[in-house]
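In this supplementary section we document a worked example of the pipeline. Step one takes a protein sequence of length 153 as its only input; no multiple sequence alignment statistics are reported here. Step two produces a three-dimensional model, which step three serialises into structure tokens for compact storage. The input and output of this example are shown verbatim.
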Amino acid sequence: MDTSLDYEGNIDRLKTTLQSLIEQMPNLLGEYQKDFINAEVNNKDEEFKLTLEKTKTHLQHINSNIFSISNEMDTIGEEIEENMKEINESIEILKKENTFLKEKAGILEQEHKGTDGMIQDYKWKYNYNYLWNFLMIVGIIIACFALNAVFTK
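The serialised model returned by step three reads:
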């Protein structure tokens, strides 16, 4: 995961550029409207046509800049989405590792929280160990009887 990307800086730069383009648009549209009317009224005069073409070119330039900003924002969004997927995958791996380490450390998780939970957890652990010891004793007694039966014959 590339953490060196400065998304906030890029987004701020794009916002500033977009804001300046938005501020230019009303004046440019007014100028285009005026030049269009002049070019239509004076359609034989090349100077008005050239002025209209310059304004049209300037509008197209602003339009292409807005399109570039849109593409750049899409790219940044895709990069952020990809980084979020990687972060989520890392979180899931760490959750599994955390659960494993809790089990290894003997921390049992029950529905109870706080000291009640600890008491319940350790009661369960005690009862489990008590049952295990009882079964071991029963197994030893059975083994003793079995050994006795085998060796007394």
